[in-house]
Amino acid sequence: xxxxxxxxxxxxxxxxxxxxxxxxxxxxxxxxxxxxxxxxxxxxxxxxxxxxxxxxxxxxxxxxxxxxxxxxxxxxxxxxxxxxxxxxxxxxxxxxxxxxxxxxxxxxxxxxxxxxxxxxxxxxxxxxxxxxxxxxxxxxxxxxxxxxxxxxxxxxxxxxxxxxxxxxxxxxxxxxxxxxxxxxxxxxxxxxxxxxxxxxxxxxxxxxxxxxxxxxxxxxxxxxxxxxxxxxxxxxxxxxxxxxxxxxxxxxxxxxxxxxxxxxxxxxxxxxxxxxxxxxxxxxxxxxxxxxxxxxxxxxxxxx
Length: 304
What we know:
Layout: H1 24-45, H2 55-64, E1 75-77, E2 87-89, H3 94-117, H4 120-143, H5 145-163, H6 169-181, H7 190-213, H8 215-221, H9 226-231, H10 242-262, H11 269-289
Antiparallel strand pairs: 1-2
C-alpha cells in the first residue's frame, strides 16, 4: 500500500539494524521476531493486516518484550511467502500479541487519515482499505480501548495542524509522537514511563525524518509538510537546512539512547542497541544526504 496523506504516522521501515555489525544469532533473531509478528497478526486478525507489517513494529515488539529474562526457542512455521518450507520464527508471547494489536490500530488509522486527505484513485483505495480493515480494527480496539482513544485524539490534533498549515515542526511532531507513545501498555511503573519517553521520541524522529524524506514529493503535490513550511522551501535541496534538521533529529535520538540506558533489559539488549545506536543514526544520515533506500535497497520486505 503506497498511499500517503499529509504527514500522519508512516510505517516505512526506517527503524532497522545495521546487519554488518550484528552477530549471526542477532540477525537471525530480528528475522524471527519479524516472522513471529507476522504470524501473530495473522492468527489474531487474518491475512489482510500482514500486508502492512513493518520493521518499526518489529522493533516495538523487541523493546516491549525486552523485560523478559529468557528467549523461548523459535518455532518453525509455513507462511504465504514460504508455503513449501517451515521457517524459524519467534515463539508467540505477550509482546508479539501486543505488537500485533498496535500494528492493526496504527495501520487502520493510516487508512482513515488517507481517506480524509486524498483525492481520486488514492481516496478510492483508502476507502477500500478501510472497508477491508474495519473488522480487524474493531477487534483491536476492543482489546486496547484506552490506547485507541489516545491515538484517535493525537490524530485529530495532527489533522487540525495540517488544516491550519502549521509551520511548527515541534507541534506537528508532538502530535505524531504522542501517537506512538500511546502504544506502550499501562503498567503504572517506572518501566512504563521510560518506554513512553522512548517511543515518544521514536515517533517524533520518524515523523520529522519522513517529512525530510518527502520534501520533493510534497512540494510537487502541494501536500502538507512542516519542514517545507518551517524553512520556506521552494526546491527539494536540503543542503542549507541540513544542520538544523540534524540537530532536532539528534535531540530525539539522544533521548531514545538515554531511555535505552535506563531500561533493565533481560533479552535482545545487543540487537536493540544496534538498532538505536547504529541503525537509526545511519538512516538519519542517509535520508538527509539523499542516499536512503526503502528496505535497504532490497526488493523483498523483511529481508535484512
